[in-house]
């Protein structure tokens, strides 16, 4: 029996140690829980930030999606317009082929002549001609461009040529020079200033004219013959002027009679 108390004391000591261990463990767990809560809160804040960023990305994506939809719509419209233009071009080619076939098989139709004339006038709308410019020994496209630039400077006009070249067969007379500008407006500016040439020593033997089609040249030739006939008959009240792309005889003083025009 003497050993029983010792066993009891030993059990009591063991229980105290176990209790102390349990208290320490719970405290650590509590601290860990607090740390975990703080970490969770931090992660919650980060998640909120990420969600906001995602929402911002969603707005941007929707904006890009709308822009892409708009571009797709515009692209489809362009494709439709292109297809429509292709059909129109095809139709025009078919008409041209038909007219050319009729032209080769028989007399050219009035419609064909008008169409061809319109195309040729459009191709010449940005051009004008310079006549009687002597051919220099070292002439080339660069020297011709420089010559045209000097002409514009002397006429006090601001234009820029896109192409300058001589045309026609080589002969005893200087070949004419065709000058291409950026627009018909520039051509009109040059033609309005051509009267200054007669007062400029360098250009007094040079003259400027529209780049006419064959039909316009024939018409102009006929008008000059008629103008000469009128002048020879004493009626000097007529001049040739360009009206809506076509040369015409115009009376300079329509209110006066032929006799009065002759006196003046």
From TrEMBL:
Domain of life: Eukaryota
Stated name of the protein: Uncharacterized protein
Organism whose genome encodes this protein: Macrosiphum euphorbiae (potato aphid)
Residue ranges of coiled coil: 61-102
PANTHER family: PROTEIN CBG24663 (PTHR37445), ZINC FINGER PHD-TYPE DOMAIN-CONTAINING PROTEIN (PTHR37445:SF3)
The entry's keywords: Coiled coil
């Amino acid at each position: 029996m003497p050993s029983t108390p010792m066993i009891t004391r030993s059990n009591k000591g063991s229980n105290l140690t176990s209790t102390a261990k349990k208290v320490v463990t719970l405290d650590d767990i509590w601290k860990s829980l607090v740390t975990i809560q703080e970490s969770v809160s931090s992660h919650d804040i980060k998640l909120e930030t990420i969600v906001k960023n995602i929402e911002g990305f969603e707005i941007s994506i929707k904006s890009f999606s709308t822009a892409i939809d708009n571009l797709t719509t515009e692209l489809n419209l362009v494709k439709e317009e292109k297809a429509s233009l292709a059909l129109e071009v095809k139709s025009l080619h078919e008409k041209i082929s038909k007219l050319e076939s009729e032209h080769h098989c028989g007399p050219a139709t009035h419609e064909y002549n008008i169409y061809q004339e319109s195309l040729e006038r459009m191709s010449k709308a940005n051009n004008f001609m310079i006549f009687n410019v002597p051919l220099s020994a070292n002439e080339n496209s660069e020297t011709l461009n420089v010559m045209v630039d000097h002409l514009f400077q002397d006429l006090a006009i601001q234009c820029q040529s896109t192409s300058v070249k001589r045309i026609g067969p080589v002969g005893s007379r200087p070949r004419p020079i065709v000058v291409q500008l950026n627009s018909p407006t520039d051509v009109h500016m040059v033609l309005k200033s051509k009267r200054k040439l007669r007062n400029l020593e360098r250009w007094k033997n040079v003259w400027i004219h529209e780049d006419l089609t064959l039909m316009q040249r024939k018409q102009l030739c006929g008008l000059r013959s008629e103008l000469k006939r009128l002048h020879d008959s004493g009626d000097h009240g007529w001049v040739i002027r360009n009206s809506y792309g076509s040369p015409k005889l115009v009376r300079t003083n329509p209110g006066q009679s032929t006799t009065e025009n002759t006196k003046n």
